[in-house]
Amino acid sequence: LDLDINWSGVFKHAHAVSKTNPFWNELSASNPFIHDIAASNRNENNKYLSILKENPYLFSKVSSDRDSLASSGDELDIDCLLRRTSARRSGRSKSVSDFLDIVDNRRLNPRKTPPQKTVASDMTWLQNDREAYKMAWLSHRQLTRSCLDLEAMSHSPGWAQTQATDIHVVCKLNHEGGSVQLPDSDINIHVPVGHVVPGEFQEVGLKAILNPPSLFNNELSSTVSPLIELTLSNLNTREAIFLEVKVAAKVKNDPLSQVMSDIVCFFSLNKEGPFKKLENCYTYQDTIQVKLTDLSHVMYAVIAAQANKIQPPATNVWDYIHRTVSVGIYGPKYIHPSFTAVFTVFGHNYIPGKLTICDIKKGGKSMPPVVFQLWGKHTFLLEKPQDLNISLVSCDPDFEVKMEDQSKNIKEEELKTGKMVRQQFLFSMLGQMHFFVFLVQIKVLKSSQVMQFHVTTPDPAPKLSGIINRPKRLQNRKEIKSAPLLLIPTIKYPKFQNKTLSINTYGVALKTVLRQNKIDYLLEYFKGDTIALLGEDKVKAIGQTKTKEWYVGVLRRKIGLVHCKNVKVISKEQAMNTADSELTTRNLVEQIALPFKKLTYIYSVVLSTVSESVYDWRALAEVLGYSHMTLDDFNEAHADKESERVAHVVKRMKEDCHANKKKRLFLYELIVALLKIDCQGLVARLTQDTIILTSAVKLGKYWRELAEKLARLTKQQIEAYEIPHQGKNGVVALEVRLW
Fold first, then answer.
1. How many angstroms separate the CA atoms of 232 and 170, rounded?
2. Which of 10, 246, 453, 481 has the fewest CB atoms within 10 Å, measured from its CB?
3. What whole-number distance in Å separates Cα of residue 716 and Cα of residue 348?
4. Which residues, in sequence order, are bridge partners of residue 460?
């Protein structure tokens, strides 16, 4: 490619920089990337220096046609310069990222387009600030490299990818202040107006260290945020700054928990401590705001849930808080025939987009540290630290998880430490190469709690062999390549069968219970009735004065709750007459979905959620009663993607239900169909969305009472919330109250 660059002008600009930079002559000769820059200052006749090495201002230039996410090698990944140098470099001197970027550019930009001129950023403010110049330079050079030979990387192209390792942010603010947020997190720094005097600046840096200090994880304390590193460039300040963090816990609402525990912030000027507890904290549910007055160039803060003491029956601080656990699935940028997915548990709710993995093994040998991408994440409530069982299952017949890696355990003691816990799962290819979907299931071993979610892998790596081994004379030949057709991942949904449930536990009613006011979810029964129990797990209902426990039972084809004290549990062999307690799988899913007949929903939200989460339109169409549908029933707009076909099926069912409103209910029939193909995670998500919306609609006009009693807001806080939402007549509209 011919570049429209005035090389002589760029060299002149570089020499001008060498004269204005205050520490140009003191560049370290030990750094191979900048050794010749220092030499050029002494020998201005040297015409053979790399332009990218000589001109550090190119580090901050942005190319408008750049589509690569990371830089690699000695030269930065500015497309036009990379392509010019790559034509002269042998295959042995290119990094894997070079090859992958070239493939991506050819695949995504088949037509040659003239390079765009770069525009230099305004960096004059760096010329007289040695420390700022050095930090800006280092931030652009902070890269990690995987040093694998070409043979290894051609077999496993997903391993060697050059990525930035640390996620941090630096922002320059003037006297007007502002806010700085760490990317992909709920960690913010608020700088008020007048923090520095007019004419001065403040550089604020934020960084999250994933493993918090271990001294705050014990019976009385548990960290609920990462260790936060805060840097300031200017200590000539007038106002304090505020740290705001959304943490992974909130104190329970009962009076004992409110008295015995609190969310607190510990602060230190050193990473290793000592830490002191800050008093200037304000906590609202799971968000804490801390006022920082003792400012330094480098500071560290960590948020923890702390108990004054443990009062039985409580055993640790977890008994006083609602604690959420965040998990992330990490993997390589591209998948290949054999790859590793890493399941990671965090002791806080900050899940970084990239994670450095140091303990990968392949063929019995340890691999160099690699940077994995975040493929999927999930957050769930865990009442207390306990053993977890993790299993990954491929939903595609072309891939499998190795037998020894299909199920792994995480110990209770590991969760108590508050540090990252990782488990590796090795996938291998059985058929064709394409992206696919797998299921992640988390089981709490000491209870029946089960969480699951689906993860979609990235695309396969582009083939490197054609570029690495291609003769030089063929590199300059114009080629027209058609984009490869990616195979749609197929999930084998189970075929629903209407069978009679096998019940192992029964209960005999000890008294007659008939209610004058009928309640749908409570069973009515006569003394001596035999009630089938769907397991021996109990549902706890916590009231004002006492806690009631219920079994989930079946009687006369109805599922409902029966009070534990009203039945005597017996085995299957002891049951005499079980005819009234028989239940089929069809009756079961229909009974589970009954509440959806009365729930409020937003059709567009349901449509988008289902179309994104169901991967086989035929399976959904069959359980909805449209097994006769074929591809000919779709128009061109719906025939391209699987999600569009699923959406078309849902729309078809919606139209049919609307035409027969008296007999058919859209949401109810959709939930029954999803249960029949075992989409439990999707049903749980729709349940949550519809319950929240229904509750908001029902309780919208009582929001003042709810805010006062549940959220404990004062009347002044309630009025302050209403003011921005008041209409011309001073009244808050109902739809505003709902949200």
1. 9
2. 481
3. 33
4. 335
Q: The domain at 322-456 falls in which architecture?
A: Sandwich (2.60)
Distance (Å) of CA 299 to CA 165, 204, 265: 21, 11, 13
Q: Give SS3 for 27.
A: coil
Encoded tokens for 128: 């007289």
DSSP secondary structure, 355-415, as one string: EEE---EETTEEPPPEEEEEEEEEEEE-SS---EEEEEEESSTTEEE-GGGSEEEE-HHHH
| Of the candidates 171, 228, 161, the residue with the CA atom closest to the CA atom of residue 202 | 171
Q: Which amino acid is at 490?
A: T
- The H or E element containing residue 138 is helix 130-141
- What is the pTM (predicted TM-score) of this model? 0.49
CB 570 within 8 A of CB 507: yes
Over residues 466-518, the pLDDT tens digits come to 434 444 444 443 333 333 334 444 567 888 888 888 888 899 999 999 988 88
Name which of 350, 342, 338, 409 is nearest 375 in CA terms.
342
Count CB-CB contacts under 10 A for residue 62.
11
Side-chain-facing half-sphere of 334: CA atoms under 13 Å: 24
Query: Residue 602 CA to chain centroid, in angstroms?
Result: 25
Furthest CA-CA distance within the chain? 105
- What is the spatial distance between Cα 498 and Cα 502, in angstroms, rounded to a whole number? 12
The alpha helices in 578-730, defined as continuous H runs, are 585-593, 603-613, 617-623, 642-659, 666-676, 680-699, 703-709, 715-722
Domain boundaries, the chain: 168-315, 322-456, 500-583, 599-697
pLDDT digits (tens, 9 = 90+) for 546-598: 888 999 999 988 899 999 999 999 988 888 878 878 888 898 899 889 889 88
CATH code matching the domain that covers 168-315, chosen among 2.60.40.10, 2.60.220.30, 1.20.1250.20, 1.10.10.10: 2.60.220.30
Tokens standing for 407? 């199920």
Q: Which two tokens stand for residue 48?
A: 């053979």
Q: Look up tokens 């000539």; give the residue.
A: 236
CA angle 520, 525, 529 (to 5 degrees): 140
Provide the CATH topology of domain 500-583: SH3 type barrels. (2.30.30)
Contact status, residue 652 vs residue 626, Cβ threshold 8 Å: yes
Q: What pLDDT score does 147 carry? A: 35
Distance between CA atoms of residues 133 and 130, nearest Å: 5
DSSP per position, 46-110: ---S-HHHH-GGGGG-B-TT---SS--SSS---HHHHHHHHTTS-GGG--HHHHHHHHHHHHH--
Read off the pLDDT of residues 79-128 as tens digits, 9 standing for 90 and up. 443 444 444 444 444 554 555 555 555 555 554 444 333 333 445 555 55
Residue 114 C-beta-side C-alpha neighbours within 13 Å = 4
* CA 510 from centre of chain: 50
